[in-house]
Amino acid sequence: MSRIGIITGMRVEEDCLAAALSALPDRHRPLLCCAGASAERAYQGARGLVADGAVALLSIGIAGGLDAALRPGDIVLPDTILGATGVQHRASAEWHAAVMQELPRVAIGALLAARKPIGTVAEKAAVRAASGALAVDMESGAVAEAAGEADVPFLALRVIADPADRAVPPAALHGIAPDGSRRPLAVLLRLVMRPSDLPPLIRLARDSDAALRQLRRVASCGSALFTPPPV
Question: Which end of the chain has fewer CB atoms at under 10 Å, N or C?
Answer without folding.
Answer: N
